[in-house]
Amino acid sequence: MSQSIILASGSTIRAELLARAGVSFEVMTARVDEQSIKASLLAEGESPRNVADALAQTKAEKIGARVPGAFTIGCDQVLAFDGQIVSKPARLEEAKRQLQMLAGKQHQLHSAAVIVEGGKTVWRKVSDVTMTMRAISDDYLEAYLARNWPEVSHSCGAYQVEAEGSRLFSRIQGDYFAVLGLPLLEVLDYLALRGAIES
């Protein structure tokens, strides 16, 4: 009998990606102080890419310790602009400022996944995507946020490319699944290799 799979994330889109791929899994949200971990790692000079990886590992380890017999998938995504991390907007005004800042420029998304089994990290992947946002008029920005707030508050950068947010971009270089927050193909490949899913 194959081992159970746990998604240590409360992200709806990550759960949808796994479900649509026909994976049977359970969701157990890992409660971690992300801001404190980020601040500590950045103070130590870690890159945004490494911050994403560390957060994913922390979540996977926290849930994995409770269910050692399962494959526990921890995930995190970090948006980096000019070397700085841009967090999820807490307020509508903050979302507007973020989009104005990113408009017409490039930024990076670092999507990390870590799998823990038996209390140990057995697999990890950080997928890097370069996002090029088109210039956005103030009128469209106001209308976009009026239509899509508060849904976009769950997305770093205040956009959701799986919805109307796709109109904000002129180019995306990298894995589309990673943009949504999970390097899905690589996760599925590892789970198939270990016999956790049929292949």
From TrEMBL:
Q: Where in the cell is it found?
A: Cytoplasm
Enumerate the active-site residues.
76 (proton acceptor)
The record ties this protein, via InterPro entries, to:
ITPase-like_fam (IPR029001), Maf-like (IPR003697)
Catalyzed chemical reaction(s): a 2'-deoxyribonucleoside 5'-triphosphate + H2O = a 2'-deoxyribonucleoside 5'-phosphate + diphosphate + H(+); a ribonucleoside 5'-triphosphate + H2O = a ribonucleoside 5'-phosphate + diphosphate + H(+)
Q: Which cofactor(s) are needed, names only?
A: a divalent metal cation
Any one GO BP annotation for this protein: nucleotide metabolic process
Enumerate the UniProt keywords alphabetically. Answer: Cytoplasm, Hydrolase, Nucleotide metabolism
Recorded GO cellular component terms are: cytoplasm
Q: What is its EC number?
A: 3.6.1.9
Q: Which domain of life is it from?
A: Bacteria
Q: Do the record's keywords include Hydrolase?
A: yes
Molecular function GO terms recorded: nucleoside triphosphate diphosphatase activity
As for family, the record states: Belongs to the Maf family.
Q: What does this protein do?
A: Nucleoside triphosphate pyrophosphatase. May have a dual role in cell division arrest and in preventing the incorporation of modified nucleotides into cellular nucleic acids.
Official protein name in the record: Nucleoside triphosphate pyrophosphatase
Its gene is: maf
